[in-house]
Fold this sequence. Notes:
6 helices; elongated
Amino acid sequence: MQKLTNKEEEIMHILWKLEKAFVKDVIAEIKDEKPHYNTLSTIIRNLEEKGYVSYNAFGKTHQYFPIISKEAYKKRYMNTAIEHYFNNSYKNVVSFFAKEEKISVDELKEIIALIEKKK
């Protein structure tokens, strides 16, 4: 699974949400500055070449759909981030968020309860 650019990832989130979409549908979902139709079409074709999307042809137009699930991408992305930034340690991940005050004691207790439940 090739790494996506930020723009490609943004487009994938839209395709995951819509499930099937024409380029015009994707443009309509973009919140910030909307790219030119041809630019977006090129980005989506790049996603196709990377194996993230496929399409159904309707004459000269294409309806695109994801072939990599959001869950599969998330798993790969998180595993890579944990490997590169946290030395393959989930403890380091949780410690990082605790130090940054991004996770509360109550949330940590919920995580512990989930872990204990699986034993």
